[in-house]
Design goal:
Elements lengths: L3 E4 L6 E3 L3 H11 L6 H16 L12 H17 L5 H11 L5 E3 L3 H10 L3 E6 L5 H7 L8 E4 H4 L6 H11 L6 E5 L2 H10 L3 E5 L11 E2 L13
Parallel strand pairs: 1-4, 1-6, 4-5, 6-7, 7-8
Antiparallel strand pairs: 2-3
Helix pairs in contact: 2-3
């Protein structure tokens, strides 16, 4: 029986608004880079693939976050034109993405969280994110829904490693077999959760993984995966 539901953050609860490509494009152009939208999209995708290949905490803990993001931006810019990211561009991007006004909560999030909470389920966040996520969720008024928020940079371990899932279940007071995890990554969220003994559902908002089982297109479908108490 499911007693707790855990959620990924990015592309599950919230997304950048405007999109990342638009923001990076504007800042990189002002920094002297010349590229096409297709080149920027390709550079971002390739760099995120590099990041997702990392195991554990990709951010190097709270003290390593600045170096992580500086290296990430340098790799994206290098793939575009071999140039360097100026301190001014780095500062503009860091400031932008730490601003709650730069993020949008999906329309299906609050109704789903309220419905699950009303059913007596314990809710949590498990996310590969830097240490600013708790303050961002707080500013977006999502924190009260969750009993605990587990963030890789703070935990010094991340998905798909089992530790972050097991710690969250312990904090919720449930066994892994009593928890369901929901997220958009087949590797980090589904394989990671199942490897730790949780059930998992893939949230596929953009219909990119039609070949995979245990998949929903929106959080409003989640109730169908949880048996009534």
């Amino acid at each position: 029986m499911i007693r707790a539901v855990c959620f990924d953050a990015g592309a599950t609860l919230l997304r950048p608004d405007p999109p990342v490509e638009e923001v990076y494009g504007r800042v990189f152009q002002a920094d002297g880079a010349r590229f096409t939208p297709e080149q920027l999209q390709g550079a971002l995708l390739a760099t995120w693939k590099d990041v997702q290949a990392m195991r554990g905490d990709r951010y190097g803990g709270v003290t390593g976050e600045v170096d992580f993001w500086r290296a990430f931006l340098s790799r994206v810019r290098g793939r575009l034109d071999g140039g360097e990211v100026s301190p001014e561009a780095f500062s503009r991007l860091a400031t932008h993405f730490r601003d709650p006004a730069s993020w949008m909560v999906y329309a299906d999030v609050r109704p789903t969280l309220e419905a699950l909470r009303d059913r007596g389920l314990a809710l949590a966040v498990i996310s590969n994110w830097d240490s600013h996520l708790p303050s961002l969720l707080d500013a977006l008024r999502l924190t009260p829904y969750f009993r605990t928020i587990s963030v890789s940079a703070i935990e010094a371990t991340g998905k798909p490693e089992s530790a972050i899932f097991l710690r969250t279940c312990e904090r919720l007071g449930v066994s892994p077999s009593e928890a369901l995890h929901v997220g958009d990554s087949p590797t980090d969220d589904v394989e990671g959760a199942e490897g730790a003994g949780l059930s998992a559902v893939l949230l596929d908002r953009d219909d990119r993984h039609g070949h995979l089982p245990r998949r929903i297109r929106g959080l409003d479908e989640l109730a169908n995966w949880i048996s009534p108490p």
